[in-house]
Please model this.
Amino acid sequence: MFENLSERLERSFKILKGEGRISEINVAETMKDIRRALIDADVNYKVAKSFTDDVKQKALGQNVLTSVKPGQLMVKIVHDELAQLMGGTAAEFKVEGHPAVVLMSGLQGSGKTTMSGKLALMMKTRRNKRPLLVACDVYRPAAIEQLKTLGAQIDVPVYSEDSKDPVQIALNAIQEARAKAYDLVIVDTAGRLAIDEQMMQEISAIKQAIQPQETLFVVDSMTGQDAVNTAKEFNDRLDFDGVVLTKLDGDTRGGAALSIRTVVTKPIKFIGTGEKLEALDVFHPERMADRILGMGDVVSLVERAQQQYDEEEARRLSKKIAKNQFDFDDFLAQIQQIKKMGNIKELASMIPGVGKALKDVDIDDNAFKGVEAIIRSMTPQERHHPEVLNSSRKQRIARGSGTNIQEVNRLLKQFDQMRKMMKMVQGGKMANLMPRMKR
Model:
């Protein structure tokens, strides 16, 4: 996401490199290059022009401090304007009420049903809600089954009926939520391949009947400016509260994320960052601006880690590490935690400077597959006591995992080094080690 735009913007800033001051000539040249970069990223032309005009005006009005180079100042101005373009700050998501009601809208194929499941999981785990999913797509039986499957995966109930009246289904679902003390109702509605009058009348009738606290429009960011145009048409009829952009982890140029706020005047509230049900993030304009400009996004990385963090488990592991009892079962559990955080390459790109370094590196999301296969080919005793692994046991593990003896030996060596390092850090010996490493 945004890789090409990030590269183009970096090249644009180089125009100012070596310049002693910001002038109308060098700023105009930089803005021309940035405007081209934005349009190539599928940003709406009017939005791109307005953005570069604003940046130019602010840049020319700045006195460059002796400690700040013109290029650095331009990065700061562009960063602030990008964040403002996308909304400035994270938009509030209001889900108070007994129950609170969320209406999901969008075209067929935008990921609306999957997003309903993701939102239910997010509200359940991060906001301690008791959600009820509602299947109101009465035209596509597969949508109802898909929602039930998603509900089963995240342990969230799904309300559905054989009725063909989506308005009545939604009203009945709210009554069901009140009766069973569910405090959040997420209504998944029907989509079409294109906007049509029947669909708009139907979803407008549902909204009028259930009076949702939040109406979200789900749109596929891969469709670029088409996503923005579709959002505008929906908003003109439905007056939704916010946008959910899906597939921002894919090969998208990012134009929808940069244009939609200005064109539709509604905030992006959530972004889908992968296929896993946990892959849903609150949209933070400033953090996205950081990532576009290659500054990483450490805050989001830490937040994702904290979502998988279990204090009780951390205490248990700490005791095991102190006693040098950290074993392959613990290692396997840690791998599962990392995998839940999302796409490995995307996680690495959140670290400042790493995204650019990994641009042309293909990181397979199954990078842990071989390691997991080796560990799962061990007996419980071997996982707890790796020291018992002799040549014949290693041969058996290699055969069972579809790897070879060299890969097994490499993992054992790395695991042993990791255990020693963890023990050293736990025991506070790192400080004693550092002077010796400098000799």
